[in-house]
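User: Sequence recovery, please. Input:
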């Protein structure tokens, strides 16, 4: 049961209503109903996710990062959400599981994203020169490194929000690992 008020989009008001009726129209998921307690919280999510639409990292690559952090941070909600979104971005279900277990995604570039994202998570940002070198040797540049960190920051925000709120999962559960 969620610990924060669940905002009903139909009865929301002001800036929150504008967000539910605008950019979140048709996306009235439990995470957003919890974030709806604060227009700033919703705007933070939308701003970060909107900015990442301009990233050089593809949506598929970004979903690998999201899945790593969802698993690493133990967020059942985000594991479910990013399994769903990841499959819509081109990952197979097997690849979503592989991302969550630092396994083989069957693609060298996705494997490099996965490995770097796990290093970033496990080392809390204190990655080694070797971690950076390996990521760059896979064809990524400094911009992709910065974007991976940005995706990780957004993932951490949603993971922690769901932990605090105890957001009820309203999507199909992610496969067990």
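Assistant: Recovered sequence (177 residues):
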């Amino acid at each position: 049961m969620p610990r924060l008020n669940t905002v009903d989009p139909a009865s929301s008001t002001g800036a929150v209503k504008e967000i539910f009726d605008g950019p979140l129209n048709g996306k009235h998921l439990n995470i957003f109903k919890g974030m709806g307690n604060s227009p700033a919280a919703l705007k933070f999510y939308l701003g970060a996710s909107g900015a990442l639409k301009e990233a050089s990292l593809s949506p598929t690559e970004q979903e690998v990062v999201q899945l790593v952090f969802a698993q690493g941070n133990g967020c059942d909600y985000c594991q479910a959400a990013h399994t769903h979104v990841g499959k819509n971005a081109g990952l197979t279900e097997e690849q979503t599981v592989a991302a969550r277990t630092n396994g083989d995604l069957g693609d060298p570039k996705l494997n490099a994203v996965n490995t770097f994202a796990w290093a970033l998570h496990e080392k809390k940002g204190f990655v080694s020169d070797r971690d950076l070198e390996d990521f760059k040797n896979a064809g990524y540049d400094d911009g992709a490194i910065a974007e991976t960190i940005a995706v990780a920051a957004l993932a951490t925000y949603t993971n922690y929000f769901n932990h605090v709120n105890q957001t009820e999962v309203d999507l199909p559960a992610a496969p067990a690992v």
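The two ends are 24 Å apart (CA to CA).
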